Amino acid sequence: MNVVAATASVDETRDLARALASLARPGDVVVLAGDLGAGKTAFVQGFGRGLGVPDRITSPTFTLVHVYEGRLPVHHLDVYRLGQLSEALDLGLPEMLDEGGVVLIEWGDAILPVLPHDFLEVRITFGAGDDDRHLALRPVGPIWAPRSDAMAGVLSPWTGTA
Amino acid sequence: MLILGITTSTAQVGCAIGGHEGVLGAIHSTRGRRHAETLTPAIEFLCRQTRVAIGDIGAVAVDLGPGMFTGLRVGVAAGKALAHARRLPMIGVTSLDLLAFPLRHSHRRIVCALDAGRGELFHAEYRQSPGGVQRVTMPEVSTPADLASDLEAANDEVLLAGDGALRYVELFDPIRRVELADHGEAYPLAGSLVQLAHARALREEFVSPVELTPTYLRRPDAEINWATRDQAGA
User: Fold this and answer.
1) pLDDT tens, A75-88?
2) What is the DSSP track for chain A?
3) How is residue B24 annotated by DSSP?
4) How many CB atoms lie within 10 A of CB A148?
5) pLDDT digits (tens, 9 = 90+) for B115-127
6) A57: domain CATH number?
7) Contact A110/B229, CB-based, under 8 Å?
8) Which residues 6+ apart lie within 8 Å of B3 measured at CB?
9) Burial class of A162 by CB neighbour count within 10 A (0 to 12, 13 to 18, 19+)
10) d(Cα B95, Cα B8) in Å, to the nearest integer?
11) Structure pTM?
12) Which residues does B75 contact at the CB level (< 8 Å), separation at least 6?
């Protein structure tokens, strides 16, 4: 079951992601989709905060991978600059997952052929106001699907059902 | 000629120095997956203990995988850097061949299986041949369950080795006629690499650091479809 949420500022997007991080488990993959400036990095900042990452999380667009230590290791990837699917594997994705980390991938929807079959897709789109965003969260595969209800629960402040 | 061998394709990082006198020294560690932190100090220690100056090394041999990506990258990069800087030739050997080499005295069919992560194995088959083992299948990736059913269907005695076999011991142990090699034979050894590389060095089967490429069995040969990004940029 998909969950649809709305935020009115970048801080609210961070808060939403921070709440969602309470559901994170070792080996999770979160695919972040959305145009430039949609708030993918802000989402990871909130998610990392939720996992207790003390460091400032910055965009990995040019460095490709940033790793942070929180309650779980957080691997923040951005595949925007990659051209080949094989380069995505060169980032060492299978081992990040085997070692119990959580992997968040900006533009991850572009490399679906090399991703595990279980992931949460978060698609961020622009709303009416400059800072309004719609977030569509789509669980894919048996690892995420059973968490739909819990997800709707923790995200209720932003889903208009609270 | 003295050869430095580097094996990093599994949870074990190792290096060895040897030549026509055999293996002069070897270091291995399986603790903590700290390949990048361990490898260079280990080479330095090994050179000191075997009283081999780095300038006496005549060729650099590396384990080409298939294996753990992060580790593989460390060993191949270190080997290439050293070979490039000292203008040395290189020799690359498949990780599974290294695993099979110490088992060469077995008359059984040998199956080597390394943990490929994500619930898969890298594996290949070997037969005894004069002076060593001969690989009889191409290295491939499959699930442990697929390999187990292949072994079950076959009708011969098999010696199964590798950290991949041990990780899924509950699948392989019940198969009759299959014996599992123990932890001592679970990883490619740097000493085996030096021995195999020495035989190749005698035949002058070298590659340049530029030509040497690791073996990735899971690399898709496709471009990323960037329709979304290009729309966003337009």
Assistant:
1) 999 999 999 888 88
2) --EEEEESSHHHHHHHHHHHGGG--TT-EEEEEE-TTSSHHHHHHHHHHHTT--SPP---TTTSEEEEESSSEEEEEE-TT--BHHHHHHTTHHHHHHTT-EEEEETGGGGGGGS-S-EEEEEEEE-SSTT-EEEEEEEESTTTGGGHHHHHHHTHHHHT--
3) E
4) 16
5) 998 789 999 999 9
6) 3.40.50.300
7) yes
8) B17, B18, B19, B57, B58, B59, B60, B61, B91, B194, B197, B198, B201
9) exposed
10) 9
11) 0.78
12) B6, B7, B8, B9, B13, B35, B39, B62, B63
Mean pLDDT across A150-161: 90
Contact A89 B216 (CB under 8 A): yes
Q: What's the pLDDT at B133?
A: 95
Domains of chain B: 2-94+188-202 (3.30.420.40), 96-185 (3.30.420.40)
* Band of pLDDT at residue A162, cut at 50, 70 and 90: very low
Domain of A63, in residue numbers? 3-159
Cα dist from A9 to A104, A123, A124, B59, B209, whole Å: 21, 16, 13, 60, 52
**A110–B69 C-beta distance less than 8 A:** no
| Position B231 pLDDT exceeds 70 | no
**DSSP single-letter state for residue B91:** E
Does residue B180 have a pLDDT over 70?
Answer: yes
CB B193 within 8 A of CB B7: yes
Tell me the pLDDT tens digit for each residue of A19-63.
999 999 999 999 999 999 999 999 999 999 999 999 999 998 888
Average pLDDT for chain B: 93
Q: Is the pLDDT of residue A110 over 50?
A: yes
Query: What are B's interface residues with A at a Cβ cutoff of 8 A?
Result: 33, 68-70, 73, 116-118, 216, 218-226, 228-229, 232-233
CA–CA distance from B1 to each of B4, B67, B132 (Å)?
Answer: 10, 28, 21
How many domains are contained in chain A?
Answer: 1
> Minimal Cα distance from A87: which residue of B?
B219
Looking at the complex, report in whole angstroms how far the Cα of residue A126 sits from the nearest Cα belonging to chain B: 12
